[in-house]
Amino acid sequence: MRHNFDEIINRRVSECKKYEAACYPEDVLPMWIADTDFAVPAEISEAIQQRAKHPCFGYPIESFEFEEAAARWERVRFGWNVDPHWVKYANGVLPFLMYAIRAYSYPGDKVVIQPPVYPPFSAIVRNNGRQLLENRLMQDENGKYQIDFDDLEKKLKDPRTKLFFMSNPHNPAMRCFTLEELKRIGELCLKYNVLVISDEIHCDLTYQGYKHIPFGSISEEFANNCIVLINPSKTFNIAGFRTGAAIIPNKRIRDNIEITIVNNKNYGRTIFGMLTFVTAYTKCDYYADEMMQYLQQSRDMMMAYMKERIPRIKLAEPEATYLMWLDCRDLNMTQDELKAFMFNKAKLGLNDGATFGTGGTGFMRMNIACPRSTVEQALEQLEKAVNAL
Ligand SMILES: Cc1ncc(COP(=O)(O)O)c(C=O)c1O
After folding, report:
1. Which CATH class is domain 65-283?
2. What's the pLDDT tens digit per position in 31-48?
3. CB–CB of 39/2 below 8 Å?
4. Counting atoms of ligand 1 from 1, which one is nearest the CA of 34?
5. 367 lines ligand 1 (CB under 6 A)
6. Model pTM?
7. DSSP code for 328
8. Pocket mutation for ligand 1, best pick of 94, 270, 277, 355 (most atoms within 8 Å of C-beta)
9. pLDDT tens-digit readout, 80-91
């Protein structure tokens, strides 16, 4: 491998939220928020250092390199022929959810989400005065989350439903939706005239046997009824640079989003954000490949370990993401007890499953995007704590 993913880096000295904001004691392993403990690719470090030598950092030009880099990534990695003119910038993926809400619904209108899901989805809907409709994902006998399509149709059919927020690959359900599932979703959204906002920020993070399909690549009709959101932040550990891209093939939708961005005066780009985004999406394919090889081994090791040595906590087969969704319901604890157990006994700083909304209670989320030795240590601590119960 060109990159060393085993390297242990002291992040406590880098104003890092994962290690510092939570104020964890030294003996608690922080494995929560979704960034990695890996160094960025050498190409990104070099680009930053090179630019930092120039002493001026005023307003940057809006070079078209950003749009071209996003289009290239989709084309080369997923075979979707994206026209760079379809690409819009924002300082994160989340602002686009807000733009879509403001451009495509009125207060009181409804937005469908699939809980348990990334918490800001529901917050952003509620905080903008819209109503939430939940199409709850349901686990099958293997713990794999499935879509209840009858329920989804019911929710989309509601005349006040304007938007469908999809997380694909799904955080925290670890699902990489299949072509068949995406087609059924897309057909239903067309039928009931609901715009699809497909958050594909975890698109690079699929495991062997699973292939990410950009929603807009499926058909022209789907492309004309969606906004696809991407960001190199999760893959290349550059969330701190605050970038995000929306791919909007339909001109009318694109213009409406542009008006919303301009009306909200939210259009400034950052010098280092542009630089890291473009470098990641044009020069660092090898890093994404190598990181997934590394994570594949960590994920396989973890699955085997959990099954054999911690069977009371269940981990369904992760199809994608480095965020492991742990089903702790067999421990028979209240959510407060579970959180205290993980923190005080297992010494692990995890995400509280309940914050992911309906269906999240009894679960905890563990981020394994760190050196494998840390994952091994975490599993040993967890095993010891469960055995002591
Ligand atoms: C599904 C999903 N969407 C969006 C984000 C955050 O996006 P951004 O930091 O680009 O706003 C995350 C971060 O964990 C996520 O998991």
Report:
1. alpha beta
2. 999 999 999 999 999 999
3. no
4. 14
5. no
6. 0.98
7. -
8. 94
9. 999 999 999 999
